[in-house]
Amino acid sequence: MCAKRLGRQTLLLDNAPGVSASASVAGGKEGEGPLKRSFDFISDDARFGEKSWERSESALLKKCLALACGKAQLAPEELDLIISGDLLNQCAGSAYALRETGAPYLGLYGACSTMSEALNLGSILIDAGAAQNVAVLTGSHFCSAERQFRFPLEYGALRTPTSQWTVTGAGALILSAGGPGPYVTRVTTGRIVDMGVKDASNMGAAMAPAACDTLLAHFRETGRAPEDYDAVITGDLGLTGSAILAELLAAEGVALGARHMDCGSVIYDAKRQGVRSGGSGCGCSASVLAGYVLENMRSGLWRRVLFAATGALMSPTTSQQGESIPGICHAAALETEV
Amino acid sequence: MCAKRLGRQTLLLDNAPGVSASASVAGGKEGEGPLKRSFDFISDDARFGEKSWERSESALLKKCLALACGKAQLAPEELDLIISGDLLNQCAGSAYALRETGAPYLGLYGACSTMSEALNLGSILIDAGAAQNVAVLTGSHFCSAERQFRFPLEYGALRTPTSQWTVTGAGALILSAGGPGPYVTRVTTGRIVDMGVKDASNMGAAMAPAACDTLLAHFRETGRAPEDYDAVITGDLGLTGSAILAELLAAEGVALGARHMDCGSVIYDAKRQGVRSGGSGCGCSASVLAGYVLENMRSGLWRRVLFAATGALMSPTTSQQGESIPGICHAAALETEV
């Protein structure tokens, strides 16, 4: 046996894989936000040179993987495995971005939790010796998401105060056996949690209970407390969802305090950039992890973080049919030393 | 290290997980086909008691998991992990079917290769000691697929000779550390292969090159030949895709001969049931594996089979945009003895 089970949901990875390289790509709006210095590439062309928004989304994923592979000095065809997924119907963003890589491929669907799901899975597979170098990546594009999930852009639909803005961006990590670090040391697989929220313009509220469930499981099964982490990073709960998460955790006697950072809450200056409750989309937590978070770890500012991206697993069809929104959240501990 | 890498794509699983239980569910048309005796449950209600086709799809997945768990004498909440995915936008069929299980969940998108992707991943995780009992399942529903991928049922659209009929059905396997068998001994992860086929009514042709690529990788990396298997089972190439696969393999000097069985070609009596080139959909290979294939292994008819489901990774949007169809195929060796 390889993986050490700390509990039903959490594994301790003894052969902790390292993040040997990472890259983030962002669109213009994200490039004007507070994290602008952390992106490797900011496109001044929202179309990324393509004719359709779906192709643009594939292009930004492709660009991001190329940058990460360049930093790791590995060609895509040298990777043992690529794990990806996205929000587009049938995860077409990833499939079309990666069809020419020639690398073994596992497609995931975890909505905006995809970066966490891919990171956890890639880390487990390396820990188990099933692969040496694995690329995990995901992204999203405001324009492809808007027309698929909400309204045609041309409508100029108004947004509710709880709504979030889909990030145009992507993040890619190259995970490698033996490092260099930061290392992935403990991973917690989430459960689907549906508390009955039906408002598709309030994803933060739908996902917060899943974040709470997974964070509690992580703390319980690892015997760690929030204080053991320099930062506890959720994916894209936004301002609304982050407040709800704090309330839910408080009811369980857990306080994250100032060490909580939500990628959706920090990627934009919500007031100045008019994004209401913050950012969302697979590319939100992916680009913030691949850029800002890992930068803070490499600089020594943070030595241990818990990264927990959240996803809302509904579809436009289920929303139209009056269904509530199931959420999910996976978590991974990243540490500079093992 | 746990997993033994036989090559870039293939792992040897020393702690080979066993298929401790399996269940298959089918709709009426499938229940009138040649494999009717192999399904655990055949519904005489295409709606599975639900008001929408999407809910019907979730209901059939739920039913299938319940049957498999019943046979394994495990409650869903006792599972360490559930791995699932489907063809519906945002894989909503699986998320809504499984949201009440309370079990850790990994969502996949592999189109009609989902059963293979889930089977391989679940097996690797058990081999690595990351889980003891894992449910892998997937399904599809003719009516939800038809309106999402093709035309509203009410149009009564004509079908081309190469078209396939989406199976209403599901299959679930409970994988358990230590068995009992049949066991999963070798798994091969596929690469995305796109040979430029653009006809969404000819998925068999789009997927056959991926099947060829993965089967060749499996034989090459394991040092095995087709003759080492009692049956080499592809997912849903249908009659057209199966003929193309035979040609592609022949060009590489490989002949499967009579040991090739394609789930899409055997689940219906194509002429009598008017399904043109055969069956397709995640539920096709899943229900045939969970029923007919495992039955033949348990009865001793087959001792060693290679199961390789194929998926077409396009979406209706990419087809409308004139894109070709990327295919993928993953393969697993199932053996009665290890």
Automatic annotation (TrEMBL), chains A, B:
It holds the Pfam family SpoVAD. The gene is spoVAD. It comes from the Bacteria. This is Stage V sporulation protein AD. One of its GO terms (molecular function) is acyltransferase activity. SUPFAM superfamilies: Thiolase-like. Gene3D superfamilies: Stage V sporulation protein AD. Coiled coil: none annotated. InterPro entries: SpoVAD (IPR010894), SpoVAD_sf (IPR038369), Thiolase-like (IPR016039).
